[in-house]
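Justification of resources, computational component.

The compute hours requested in this renewal are based largely on the per-chain cost of generating structure records like the one below. Each record pairs the submitted sequence with a full structure-token output. That output is archived, and it is also reused by downstream analysis tasks.
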Amino acid sequence: MADLHLFNSLTRKLERFEPVHPGEARVYTCGPTVYNYPHIGNMRAYVFADVLGRTLSWKGYKLTHVINITDVGHLTDDADSGEDKLEKAAAGTDKSIWDIARHYTEAYWADVKALNIRQPAHWSVATDYIEPMLEFAKSIADKHCYELESGLYFDVSTVEDYGRLARAVTEEGEGRIEAVEGKRNAADFAIWRKTPPGEKRQMEWDSPWGRGAPGWHLECSVMGEKLLGFPFDIHTGGIDHREIHHPNEIAQNQAFCGCGGLSDAMNSGARIWMHNNFLVERSGKMSKSSGEFLRLQLLIEKGYHPLAYRMMCLQAHYRSELEFSWQGLGAALTRLKRMVMQAERLKEAEASIPDHPKFAALLEKFDAAMSDDLNTAIALTALEEALAVKKVDAGIKRAVVERMDSVLGLGLMDLARQDLRIRPENAEITEGEIEDALARRKEARAAKDFATSDAIRDELYAKGVEVMDGDPLGWEWSLEERG
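The structure output for this chain reads:
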């Protein structure tokens, strides 16, 4: 196998992966703030992190992957200002903040399952780590923090190279951060937020700096250190985390460890920092503030299998912007269906040792692609080429396909092409009715009764069913959504 090379956002370089602990890979992924449903752009980050974890497993490392659940502390403005998102979501409802957090956590987990994302070693929930957060904050408070009426703040001038990850070295570069009277530096951020006088939060705890709640950045430092130890191997998140959240997390890690500057990446708490780029949707429905945004469930309601979205993500490099469109999703679904149809022919074969010269070259191509900073686009072509190889033992072919798919996570051996039919939830006709009509149409065509055949086709079309007579493996169909 080739050496694994990954792009380190901290150094802005492609670097060979060298585990901190031989034979192990320890990964921390910034998880969701569970105040609302995740949109499909959020879920791109977890498809990326899943592919990273699968690649590390492919390379033979013992993987420990942590994904956090933020149920307290993340504010309505990512720039360290505003209300707590969970407190705001609970306001004016008859549900407790704990109920809301649980509801949206379970919705997120449902999306994780639907996208065939593997379970991490730990789902770390922020409110389970309040005491360790307090201890962490106490350990850095004297040298690195100061207290204001609103809480305990971290002085970014007390650590070397603050903002190197974001390349934010000027106060102008931190313009999105809240202006708080008394802050020593514009970029200083809250470690602990006091509950304002006269208010009471559903989530608040006692601390040496008054009753309140932890700052958003604190939880990731604490859970990363507790579950993986400093330094660990890889920290992942969306590119939006690169500008404020992760620089603040790094500053806390430096303070806690008594580390020096960031010329040595280990001082950041993680050896490699990785970030996926945005999913772009031109109509503006990727913002939760609009009230209506693109959820995975919406794709499913419109009849698309969720793994078509996973395929869409894999077709682009994780560091490039990915534009979402329904046409693009349909094309990804068609590509997935073609691969599933080829894989179906292998399901009766028993997997055997993939020892074959044709497949050896394809496995090498696949491994080289994944080793080159997770180049899933090229890896997909290697998988397609393996599926297309003819006149070889089916057991060997199945073993090769399963090995490649163990990294890409498309679940080819578990899907049938019928699973991938476009079936909107509001369709006017059932699947059984469609199959009955197609059977009658087949009989009519066999009897050369083309008038009846055409009438059945027109009847189906009127109910939103498109019949694809040219389908090579039998008549296929799809359903249009009805408004």
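Residues 169-176 have pLDDT under 50 and may be disordered. The longest strand covers residues 62-69.
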